[in-house]
Amino acid sequence: MLVAARTASLALASAPTRLKNTALQGIAVALRENVAQIVAANALDLAAGAENGLTAGLLDRLRLDEARIRSLADAVDEIEALTDPVGQVVRGSSLANGVKISQIRVPFGVVGVIYEARPNVTVDIAALALKSGNAAVLRGGSAAENSNRVLVGLIHEALVAAGLPGECVQTIDPFGRAGATALMQARGLVDVLIPRGSAGLIQAVVTESTVPVIETGAGVVHIFLDASANEQWAADIVHNAKVQRPSVCNAVETVLVHEQAAARVLPGVLAKLAGAGVTIHGDAAVRALYPAAVPATDEDWATEYMSLDLSVKVVADLDAAIAHIRRYSTGHTESIITNDIVNAERFLNEVDSAAVMVNASTRFTDGGEFGFGAEVGISTQKLHARGPMGLPELTSTKWIVRGTGQIRD
Fold it and tell me: For a Cys-Cys bond, which of 4, 31, 72, 107 suits 133, CB 3.0-4.6 Å?
């Protein structure tokens, strides 16, 4: 299968944009026309997941209903409308001797992706890989096996109907964990590997893989309520960042509050969260203001809950907030709520995460929200790609040199 993926990637790398867009159109149509089939397969996965004790957060990620499927189709349409990155000139110049050089974007070739309980990733990756000229080999895990089998089948049919090799998108799920191991060890056949899932899965891939890995990270995400934080903004932003979809990696997990703002801001923030069923894990200062909070432990500050749980801590000032974030953050997303432009700029400049925000919900760290159509994942590393990864992040570059007989002195 990996050899077939390599062969398919050669055809895809030189495919015109028109042909790739035709395949993407076919995928979007197939999703919309087969909602019932996808939902039925997903129901089998959900039932098995509940029986096997999957957490509420994982079950939410696993779920595909009609609205989510139609959103996936819309995302494919958005990707089709984006500019094809293949062949784009990154930079170029003419040397003094007349040699012309240019750096252009080219596909990686074969992209492997290992993920769990996220059938939406199957569609997102397939569409982004296709548009960027890459073959994709997917390991979606046993939890979503029925959903992924149907989705990959529909994608395969759309590829063939468009005149592209079906092997441009393949799943190795039938091979189980042995398949995942083979994918991680397939250096020379697979150009890059991207893990998406729990911290344990990501670390296992990073540790065991001989294929170069783009590391996506867990989201221990912070919001700092500064001394000048607007009360309504604080309540609305924290509520949105925690409650809208608590199972995702850009949901806030820890709120830090300036001690000068705690008495003014926290009651409204925590009351709105309580109304949504959020359990507050607070330090002593928080519990003094909100007795219903449970005591926070050191472990809470490092926890990605992916549930309606939130750690809250009162800190002395901006310096203390930044120090806490440096210690516990996974480098995903952090936000400050403030009316102090100096503190806002300090936070933006001194916090070292993939996305840093002022007066906005952390839920915006997302490829779709950033205008990428979808995302491969959110990279928390610092090499090649960082933050939401879209089409350009699935390309490498090569140098094109054009001469007229020049030789080097």
Answer: 107
Instruction: Using DSSP, state whether 212 is helix, strand or coil.
Output: coil
User: For 216-226, b where at least 16 C-beta lie within 10 A, e where not — what string?
Assistant: bbbbbbbbbbb
- CB neighbours of residue 403 within 10 Å: 12
Helix (H, G, I), strand (E, B) or coil at 404: coil
CA distance 26 to 34: 12
Give the model's pLDDT for residue 167. Answer: 96
Asked if the model's pLDDT at residue 182 lies above 80, the reply is yes
Contact in structure between 376 and 402 (CB atoms under 8 Å): no
- Rg over CA atoms, the chain: 23
Q: Do 146 and 153 meet the contact criterion of CB atoms below 8 Å apart?
A: no
Strand pairing of 279-282 and 309-315?
parallel
Interior angle at CA 374, CA 208 and CA 220, nearest 5: 55
Strands 135-139 and 169-171: parallel
Mark residue 369 as left, alpha or beta (left: phi above 0; alpha: psi -120 to 50; beta: remaining): alpha
Nearest to 272 by CA among 298, 304, 229, 310: 310
Give the whole-angstrom CA distance, residue 205 versus residue 195. 7
* Cα–Cα distance, 169 to 136 (Å, whole number): 5
Confidence of residue 376 (pLDDT cuts 50, 70, 90): confident
Q: Which of 125, 110, 78 is nearest to 7 (CA)?
A: 110
Backbone dihedral region of 360: left (phi > 0), alpha (psi from -120 to 50 degrees) or beta?
Answer: beta
Using alpha carbons, list the distances in angstroms from residue 243 to 96, 161, 247, 308: 59, 42, 9, 7
DSSP state for residue 224 in the 8-state scheme: E
pLDDT in tens, 346-371: 999 999 999 999 999 999 999 989 98
Alpha carbons 364 and 301: distance in angstroms, whole number: 22
Encode pLDDT of 78-89 as tens digits.
999 999 999 999
